[in-house]
């Protein structure tokens, strides 16, 4: 099995790394939360700070009235070889070693004020302190602000609840060992620490009870019922502590001498002498260290499982946002082309129905074009009055003799010219749909999200190509309209000429019909004939215009949307290729954070494998 030193030291190392990377939570349990820790909980003036200093064997915590601990203090103790020099290190000042523990106290005060100011506010941002000494055991303790019942001057009314919420956020975690500090000269049943511990750990399996101030209890009273587990039973034994008196603190009695004095108290005490081997700060430190090592060993499988799960999640996110790009031009060009192809695939899926949007093009052909054709002003253009006007103008000074062919041609040309509007509108409507599909495809191509510059370049290139396709499509549909004017379907008019011959002949003596070539009926007949021909042309264009638009715009967009862009990219120099792959700074920062966290988890897994099963 791993030694206690290596196993607890490993957890300390992982905790420090988690703090540096801010790995304190998020969805699910963070690695920090999965690591067993000891949280020190107690009310103000319960002797909490004195217990910690006794465990460390050094004066190093700020003292004073009111709330002195205003930020959580993560205290990591590292046992060193006998004869080595004691020193302390703060995570926020990693290159500075503190051999003077009065300077450690000053640094804690200054670092607290840096976040909370000189006020009496609290902050949940922890201070992380490591102490290396031959006089400590390997242990991690979290010193939390003392529970209080009343806000003092300069504190908000919510301070009581704020402190309790902060303390609760630590002790309610299933991997937290609770060190509940209660003064023996008060009723244990009313202890703030025990009350909170009972709420979050009702079975008492995570709670260690500590009774302080045994030496200043009222004469004739003792704490045996508590220490022997009769008045309040926990699954772990209670430990009694005798803190330094205020006189000892004023005289600067060092902690090693205080430990010795504490041992003598229990060994010579008529009430507690039989418990002396299980009392005192030294015993408490060893008890906690041994229990912490046992818990760590029990939790190793779940810690490793969490690490493996986290590694898989980080790798999946890194794959999603993309790995770092190589710096050589060949790799950069390959990456750009791959990203272009990824966009092109999404764009084609929109057109072909794999994603929504392509159906809007069919909507242009099936709804917008027919509706536009129905609104054309043929009724006005082929009214009897306008037909007469056009035919008369076409005849000039010599009226037509049989059929007004020039009048027919002018009426037909004028009518066909109206089709240019719907034809161009169809081109523009499809162009708008294609542009919108480009925009959606850019936003939906996951690989492009990390490269906003390249995404912008691809969008610009695609829109330029669509403009070229629209210009060609507009020319084509206008040609189709002009073709209808350039050559009329003769058979249609020949059929019209033969229709009167099919009518039943008049009786020999019947009066001749009104054959006046300039009557209203005559012009209505011309308008009707032209209208019938225009309807035939309309049916033709309704079918041919969509084909031309699809051929010139949709088909080309699928085949060669980025061809011109590919040619331009191939001629770019390395520096310009690199500029195109300029990533979103937030994404780069996120990748860097993920890479560091991934390295932390992998190193933690390797370290655990190296020491856990020796």
UniProtKB/TrEMBL annotation:
Residues 523-614 form the GED domain. Residues 507-517 have a biased composition (Low complexity). Pfam families: Dynamin_M, Dynamin_N, GED. Residues 499-519 are annotated as: Disordered. Keywords: GTP-binding, Motor protein, Nucleotide-binding. CDD domains: DLP_1. SUPFAM superfamilies: P-loop containing nucleoside triphosphate hydrolases. Residues 32-301 form the Dynamin-type G domain. InterPro entries: Dynamin, Dynamin_GTPase, Dynamin_GTPase_CS, Dynamin_N, Dynamin_stalk, G_DYNAMIN_dom, GED, GED_dom. SMART domains: DYNc, GED. Belongs to the TRAFAC class dynamin-like GTPase superfamily. Dynamin/Fzo/YdjA family. This is Dynamin-related protein 1C.
